[in-house]
Every structure is written in structure tokens, then in C-alpha cells.
Write a structure and sequence with these properties.
Elements (H helix, E strand, L loop, with lengths): L4 H6 L3 H5 L7 E3 L4 H4 L11 H8 L7 E3 L12 H8 L22
Parallel strand pairs: 1-2
InterPro entries: P-loop_NTPase
Protein name: Helicase ATP-binding domain-containing protein
Length: 107
Amino acid sequence: MYISSETLLSRSDITQLIGERRVGLFIVDEAHIFTIWGKACRSDYWYLGTYLKWLRKSMAFPVAIFTATAIYGGIEDMYAQTRDSLNFIDPISYFGYVRRENLEMKD
């Protein structure tokens, strides 16, 4: 199943949609959006963690989150904010650094 956060949170029948199938992996892409938009204009993103916690009471599945633009550390620590908003406790984290020569950062 491929579903947006807004659709997932607005459907009260998600367990009926899943039915007898097993959720193999729940993926959140562009996870930095939770901290950028989740508190302001897309507040439904901020509640995904609460919803996942509720859903995982009735079924077990791993959750993976991905982003290529998160800030790690400091006052704008998107990693910690996203981890906390999704109710992750002691997650396994992988960090990488990809420098792309064809992209230039400017102030």
C-alpha cells in the first residue's frame, strides 16, 4: 500500500484496508517535512507518530524514515525532532554524507 500521511491520518478504516495482510515495512520519505511543515502548515504530519504508535499496538512492523536534507545537531536538529515526533525510542540510525559536485550551496 502506498499512502500519503494526510490520507492515512484521515481514514478511520485503515485496519480494514490492511485486513489480513501483514505490513512488512512502513516507510516515511522526506522525513524532514515533519519538522519543517509539521508544526505550521501541515500539522497532520506532526501527529503521524501518535497514529503509528496506536497502529503498532495491533500489529508489529518496522518503520524506516528517509531524508537527504536533515540538519543534525544544534538548535535546528531535524533528526531529534523527527525521531521524537514519531515516538522512536533508541532507533537504529544510519548517517551518510553525500557531496555532489554538480550542486552548489549559497547563502
